[in-house]
Each structure stands twice: as structure tokens, then as C-alpha cells.
Write a structure and sequence with these properties.
By secondary structure, this protein is α+β, with helices and mostly antiparallel strands. It folds into two domains: 14-134, Beta Barrel (OB fold (Dihydrolipoamide Acetyltransferase, E2P)), CATH 2.40.50.140; 163-313 and 372-479, BirA Bifunctional Protein, domain 2. It has helices at residues 14-27, 43-47, 88-91, 93-102, 150-155, 157-163, 165-187, 229-238, 275-294, 318-326, 335-344, 355-367, 419-434, 445-452, 466-472, 490-504, and strands at 54-67, 70-77, 80-87, 108-117, 123-134, 191-192, 198-199, 211-214, 219-223, 242-250, 262-271, 298-301, 304-308, 314-317, 374-377, 389-390, 393-397, 399-404, 407-414, 458-464. The strands form five sheets. It has an eight-stranded mixed β-sheet, with helices on both faces. Helix 7 runs antiparallel to helix 9 and helix 11 (335-344) packs parallel to helix 12 (355-367). The longest helix is centred in the middle third of the chain and has 23 residues, at 165-187.
């Protein structure tokens, strides 16, 4: 038999006290972490029962109030919260004392009893028996102050989920958001597919990939930066008409209110359709998702109020919008003129940026002024290497982006299916990479070969969970259950302590 380690008790250290209580249960022959529970009803189901009915339920203790021979507790599970009452006369002196002395707030218990209503009208359970299901060795955050430090709150999200029921509702809505996306596309006849997460060539987007090494093949591989764009287009070559994928993708880029490094994305590809058909479908899809997830079409999004998805969506011309807001025509202007305009507007850019990157910086300045909902159209080829050129103006592409509250929350194209044109654009991107642009796309010869077998006219479109965060009107990190954090160490702790000391001066 393994001997229990000796605990150095400190009555001022609640963890030591709770460990002692846990050991007391063991000495009484009670397993403080049993494998089974006799729960028959959730707390919500228990609340729906009539007075006098027998209940077997379970939950975490959130409040405990001892009143001599009577104790009241609030217990909580995913479905809700409910009051339980324990009487010494019903449980017996030993069982009652064991509960009052050894059970703490945060412990998870199972209870059996009958439904009743207190004289104050509170729906309750009169407990006839209880079981310890999990002894909590650490206390919950103070109910009045909670988790105030943002880093701790995000690092220990499980505690915030316990103490903040509204946060749980966000993630229930997020689940509905992706479920309604899937429902809409399946109803429209799309086939859900799975494409590789590890790639030897990272393609389908302008982004810096994460790199890792595949030991068995002894090659470096990349975590995908798109939701299988070049793979799904191979499926169009193969004869599929409508496909989509919902999954995780990864970009080794900066963090902001709108950006993460790993996140969920949806992309669909629709054979024999162009970007005009795509815009019609996407507008219907966004309205369907909003209604299904939030039950409304009007949203507050940061500084933009009452953004109405139900109204007629605006068409924003890329070149025209930039000229209207900055006075410069990007198609006619040289790099020097664009750089001078960026400087005049105090827009940051890198000295080595190509004209395409400079134009993109200028566009993002303009985009922040647009409330939407609408579609950005007529994007130049230089910033859209995978989109099909417009027949009436080869400098522009058949690309469309969803604009909401000053940001892009969806991106689509009439996909490029000319293999010669595609190979040329890949070559231009490769030259940009050689000059140090880590976000430029890689030359995928295998994909070009697939196009040479013939891909039908195709519309592709995708959006990420950024759309959900905009509809929720919260920073995207707040809409992720467990956002990536730096490992906690003494330096992190010291930084927080320094900030607290400075704020108290």
C-alpha cells in the first residue's frame, strides 16, 4: 500500500486545509474522487419536477450557509443553479456534521431528496442523502471581485466559466453559429470534406505559415494557412460541384482585437458559379446564420451601431473608395506617390513593402471608415493573386469581400482557372518571397498541373470565427475558450506585480 505523503499544514493556507479534509474522507473509507455518479436529473430537470417528487442530481457548490441544524447551499451544473437544504434531523448527526465540517464551496456533490418550496418561495431540494463526487483543493474566485486580471482570466478560463454564466452562453451561441453555417451549406447541396492540415507547400492565402518537421518523411512541412483552398479546387477538377470545409487553420502573425494565430475557418467552392452568384448566396447565408444564432439582424459592432444585415448590401469599389477617401488613384500612381500618401495619412508601412503591400495598407485605412454591410468589389490583380481577372478590365479581379464595421469578415473570388495565368502569378509571388515578403504565396507546381487538366468556372468563399466575434461585439480572444498564452513564469508574475504597484502609487 502506498503511504500518503505527510502534509505540512498551515491553517492560513486554504489548500492545506482542504487537503487535510480530503485525507479525512479517505481515512473514513470514502473515495473523494469516485468514478460513478447516480445523477438522474440535471438541475434544470430537477427544477421542472413537482413538489414531493424524488430527485437524484449533482452539481458544484457555489454557496454554503450553515444555520445550526440546517444548512442551505446553491449547487450549479451546466443547466443552471438550484438551492438544496440539509437538516440534521433527516441526515443524522454524523452525516450532517461530516457535510458541514468537510464540504467546501467548489466541491462537487451528488444529492438525493424531494422537491419542495421554501416559505420564501425558492424552489429547492430537501436532501435525504449526499455523496462527495470531487473534492476541490483550491477555492473559487471571490464572487464579488471575480477574476479582474485579464491575463489570469484568459489563462484560467475554466474558473471564469464556472463563475460567469453569461460567458457560457457565448460559447453555446458559437456552437450554434458553426452549426447553422453547416446546416445552410448542406441544405444548399454542398458536400462537407476534409483536406490536409500538414502541407509541403503552404498555399491559398497571403500569410506566414508555422513550420514543423515531419520525422518519418524527413521533410519540413507547414500548418495550413487556408481551409484547403488549393485542395478543394483540385476537387473541382475531379468533378465535384459543391464542397466546403470547417476546421482549424494557422497563421504565424500578430495578435490583435481581430486576429488569432490558430482559429476556425469555413471555405466553400462552387463549380459552374461566379462571384455574382457567390455574393447572392453569401448574403443569404449571413442572414440565416445571424437569425439562427442571435435571433436578430441588427447588431452593435464597436463604434458602429445598429449595423443592419437585413438592409440592402452596399457595393464598395476598391479603387473608387480609396480615391474618394485619399485622393489617389492606385492604378495610375507610382510607388513613391503611394508612399507619400501613406506618410501624409500617418499610416505605418515597411520600407521594403511592394506596391501591392503599400496599396493594401492604404485600403485598410479606408476600410475602417465603412460600416457595411456590403461587398468590396473590383480588387486589383496585384493584391488578389488567386482571383480571376475581369474581362472588361484585366487590371481588376472578380473578388468580393464582406465588409462589416470597418473590417473584412469574408472573402471570395471567381477562382482563377487559367493554368498559364496562375503559374505567372505564382512566379510573381515567389519573387516577392525572395525579396523578404514572408506572406507572399509559394509556387505550387502540383496545383498548376491540376489546373492544366481543366477546372470549371468556380466561386470560392470563406470566413473565420472573426465574423462571430463581430456579431458578438467582443474581441476575438474573448470568443475563444482557451486562447494561446505565454507559459506563466516568474517574469510574468513580476510584470503583473509591477503594474499593480504602479497603479497603487
Amino acid at each position: 500500500m502506498t503511504k500518503e505523503p505527510k502534509i505540512s499544514e498551515n491553517i492560513n493556507d486554504e489548500r492545506d486545509v482542504r487537503i487535510r479534509k480530503m485525507q479525512d474522507f479517505k481515512e473514513l473509507g470514502i473515495n473523494p474522487y469516485p468514478a460513478r455518479s447516480n445523477r438522474q436529473q440535471t438541475l434544470r430537470q430537477a427544477l421542472e419536477k413537482s413538489e414531493g417528487e424524488n430527485i437524484q442530481t449533482a452539481g458544484r457548490i457555489m454557496m454554503k450557509r450553515d444555520m445550526g441544524k440546517l444548512t442551505f447551499c446553491h449547487v450549479q451544473d451546466e443547466s443552471g443553479r438550484m438551492q438544496i437544504a440539509l437538516k440534521q434531523d433527516d441526515l443524522g448527526k454524523d452525516q450532517y456534521k461530516l457535510f458541514t465540517d468537510k464540504i467546501d464551496i467548489g466541491d462537487i456533490i451528488g444529492v438525493e431528496g424531494t422537491r419542495f418550496v421554501t416559505h420564501k418561495g425558492e424552489e429547492s431540494i430537501l436532501v435525504s442523502g449526499w455523496t462527495l463526487l470531487s473534492k476541490a483543493l483550491l477555492p473559487l474566485p471571490d464572487k464579488f471581485h471575480g477574476l479582474q486580471d485579464e491575463e489570469i482570466r484568459l489563462r484560467k478560463r475554466y474558473l471564469e466559466l464556472i463563475t460567469n454564466p453569461e460567458l457560457k452562453e457565448i460559447f453555446k451561441r458559437k456552437s450554434n453559429f458553426w452549426q447553422s453555417t453547416r446546416e445552410f451549406l448542406l441544405h444548399e447541396g454542398f458536400l462537407e470534406v476534409e483536406t490536409p492540415v500538414l502541407e509541403t507547400t503552404a498555399g491559398g492565402a497571403d500569410a506566414t505559415p508555422f513550420v514543423t518537421h515531419h520525422n518519418a518523411l524527413d521533410v519540413d512541412v507547414y500548418l495550413r494557412i487556408s481551409m484547403g483552398e488549393l485542395w478543394q479546387k483540385r476537387l473541382m477538377v475531379a468533378g465535384f460541384d459543391k464542397t466546403f470545409e470547417i476546421g482549424r487553420q494557422f497563421r504565424n502573425e500578430g495578435m490583435s482585437r481581430e486576429h488569432l494565430q490558430d482559429y476556425t475557418q469555413m471555405e466553400f467552392y462552387w463549380g459552374y458559379a461566379d462571384y455574382e452568384k457567390g455574393m447572392e448566396l453569401v448574403e443569404r447565408m449571413y442572414k440565416y446564420i445571424a437569425e439562427k444564432t442571435f435571433g436578430k439582424l441588427k447588431f452593435d459592432m464597436g463604434e458602429f451601431k445598429d449595423v443592419d444585415l437585413g438592409k440592402e448590401w452596399t457595393r464598395y469599389d476598391y479603387v473608387g473608395t480609396i480615391e474618394e477617401k485619399t485622393g489617389i488613384n492606385i492604378l495610375d500612381a507610382c510607388e513613391t506617390e503611394i508612399i507619400n500618401t501613406l506618410k501624409d495619412l500617418k499610416i505605418e508601412f515597411d520600407k521594403g513593402d511592394s506596391k501591392a503591400r503599400l496599396v493594401d495598407s492604404l485600403w485598410k485605412y479606408c476600410r475602417r471608415q465603412l460600416s457595411g454591410p456590403g461587398f468590396l468589389v473590383n480588387t486589383p490583380v496585384m493584391v488578389s493573386p488567386l482571383a480571376k481577372r475581369k474581362e472588361d478590365n484585366p487590371e481588376l479581379t472578380e473578388r468580393f469581400q464582406v465588409i462589416l464595421a470597418g473590417s473584412e469578415v469574408g472573402n471570395g473570388y471567381s477562382e482563377l482557372n487559367d493554368p498559364i495565368d496562375q503559374a505567372g502569378r505564382f512566379q510573381e509571388q515567389a519573387e516577392m518571397r525572395e525579396k523578404g515578403d514572408t506572406e507572399a504565396q509559394m509556387h505550387d507546381k502540383d496545383f498548376v498541373e491540376a489546373l492544366e487538366h481543366g477546372m470549371p468556372p468556380t466561386c470560392g468563399f470563406g470566413f473565420s470565427e472573426r465574423l462571430f466575434s463581430f456579431l458578438e461585439n467582443k474581441p476575438i480572444r474573448e470568443c475563444v475558450l482557451f486562447p494561446l498564452m505565454k507559459p506563466e513564469n516568474q517574469e510574468n508574475i513580476k510584470t503583473r506585480e509591477d503594474k499593480k504597484n504602479q497603479s497603487s502609487l
